[in-house]
Amino acid sequence: MITILSGGTGTPKLIQGIKEVYEPSKMNIIVNTVENDYFSGVYVAADIDTVLYTLADIINDETWYGIKDDTFFTNEFLKELNCPELLRIGDKDRSIKIQKTLLMEKHSLSEVVDIQRRRMNIESKVIPMSDEHSEINVYTDCGKLSFHDFLIKKQSKPEVLDIKYTKVNPSPEVIEIIEKSDMVIIGPSNPITSILPITSMNGVEKALKNSYCVAISPIIGGSAVSGPAGKFMKAFSHEVSSLSVASMYKGFLDKFIIDEMDENLKDKIEKLIKDVTITKTKMKNIHDKKMLAKIVLGEVI
Amino acid sequence: MITILSGGTGTPKLIQGIKEVYEPSKMNIIVNTVENDYFSGVYVAADIDTVLYTLADIINDETWYGIKDDTFFTNEFLKELNCPELLRIGDKDRSIKIQKTLLMEKHSLSEVVDIQRRRMNIESKVIPMSDEHSEINVYTDCGKLSFHDFLIKKQSKPEVLDIKYTKVNPSPEVIEIIEKSDMVIIGPSNPITSILPITSMNGVEKALKNSYCVAISPIIGGSAVSGPAGKFMKAFSHEVSSLSVASMYKGFLDKFIIDEMDENLKDKIEKLIKDVTITKTKMKNIHDKKMLAKIVLGEVI
Fold it and tell me: Which of A52, A71, A81 to substitute to test the interface with B, most B CBs within 10 Å?
């Protein structure tokens, strides 16, 4: 059994590879929830939905947001009504969000996600990191912004000075699942806004220390493969490099996988993490994803 | 200036005729709200939306519910997710309901509807009868049912023993608009669940007495033209006939328009309402609608 810690883009790409070479029913994915919030009247758990859609093979893997070949009739008509949506929600995608919103009147987020993944015939467990609501704000040279305002309205352009999110407790299964796993995989997601929110929750770092934990660096040659990870790392006075990521994960990491482009950092990283593997980490197609998945899983397949 | 009291099917048909022969900017429509409620997480004001869509020429006038040529992607996917909607909400139609729900966080229902009708370039004023929430229940031989459960889940089949709705107060403009109008038209809507909820609010009957008030009977030859009006009238120990409708409206009505098929009731009705006009009231096409509109408006065009 393995557990994957995931954000919304890099890790789902890797999951596409892993599910080709590993038994889906033995996979657990713990997903970041700090960016969850209500938009257009529905509860949006963007990273969770991306993971669900990835596992159900319906992800729009051009944008890594929403469902492949979705339509946007509601979204477009809201625009005509002078009520534009901050998030561009597709018509099918909206169903998932409506169901989540309705189910959350009577269930915790982890129960809701479990109902949905079963309904979508997903064999892997998808576990929200927390059932509690976090507020995440980005402090920029344009002032304090909500995470989605920064990401969408401001297109990640302002200089980031700080990021703060409410501290939350892990959802019921998180600790146990990590401890029971033969391997915990920290996917190539944004360390600041996707991974550290998970690992910094009460008890998680301790559980990771007791597990065999492998991470894939989301940084290749000084810049993030996707999204504003670089900007966020700088705000925390981190150099944007795999070495910085290693320093963030060193307390609980057994093995770190970095890109060929970062071979020059190997010696320095090995002072923090004993086992460093160099490979091609950029995933352009399913072949790349499967190759990387095999290297990551190594011992367990 | 004229004011029309409306429910969701018969009166909108007549409105289609009236707006062809009368200046839309001089029309006010006061719409029933007792059936409004939350469905699928959005606020549904079915009769109001039907009136808005009718005025904007986008009504689905086969079902008299929702927007013409709408798609149902969200609704269909909700079904696949085992989360079927009680109301079949179309994708564009859902936009109107989402906007209403969001605007209602900061505005009264009448303000919300006014924002929406302006946005849809509707010149006529559309006024919800009340800004307060009513609960409407149908007491049947199968027990107490919510209005929509009776109408949709039970397809109006159970025997109706009683109908009860919360008493609410008129929204700010209702009384003034009625008093200022040259003519108030009570459309051929369900008297029990569409018209009486409006006329029984505090101050409305008095305002109607001070106005010139014309009604079109929703009953032709012993049965309702559409919907469960007949069933509801029986529950109130009313015979299903234009005579019964006349007896309900007699306190404030100046003129009553009945169908040719009910000519035999003319003498009896004239004992309740002085001015009775006999004409063809069934509206099968736009020609019928315009003809009836001209007869109704008579004095004001």
Answer: A81
